[in-house]
Amino acid sequence: MAIKIELRINGDKETVARLKKAGVQLNDFSEEFKSLSNPLLDYFSNSVFETEGQIFGEPWPKLKPEYEFRKRVVFPGAGILVASGDMKKAYRARSSSDFLQVYNPTEYFKYHHSDAPRTSKLPRRIMLKFDEERIKMIISTIEEGLFRRIRGVFK
Predict the structure, then answer these.
(1) Mind listing the pLDDT tens digit for each residue in 46-71?
(2) Which of 60, 94, 128, 148 is within CB 3.0–4.6 Å of 52 for a Cys-Cys bond?
(3) CB–CB of 106/89 below 8 Å?
(4) What separation in angstroms does the CA of 22 have from each of 32, 56, 86, 146, 148?
(5) Any idea where the domains of the chain sit in the sequence?
């Protein structure tokens, strides 16, 4: 899922010219995206797994009884999608001036998370979804950065 944010500057020509003359970077969100990375990574690798998808309102399907028993013996106390913990710990973020990507490079992540039609008995368990609260956090962080830059021009 991609979130696209578009910025348009409308207003009188003098204000637009003043912003351009001051060299205000209204299209470089590197700082904002970098500050968002850790909270997002923490959310996906902790809150999502702790609630087993319930945080999205889509709880993960329970394990089959035979697998649940085997898992309790081999990985005592581990949650539904946690065995070694590799997938839970693998979330990464990368960003530039105009994008922020949060992803999980674990090879088997896609098999659990994908919304493709199921050919196996492996149920879908959502682990990466930008809910309203995350979207508001992203927009708020970008707005704060823009306002900070613009206020600097008009001091």
Answers:
(1) 999 999 999 999 999 998 899 899 98
(2) 60
(3) no
(4) 20, 43, 47, 14, 13
(5) 29-153
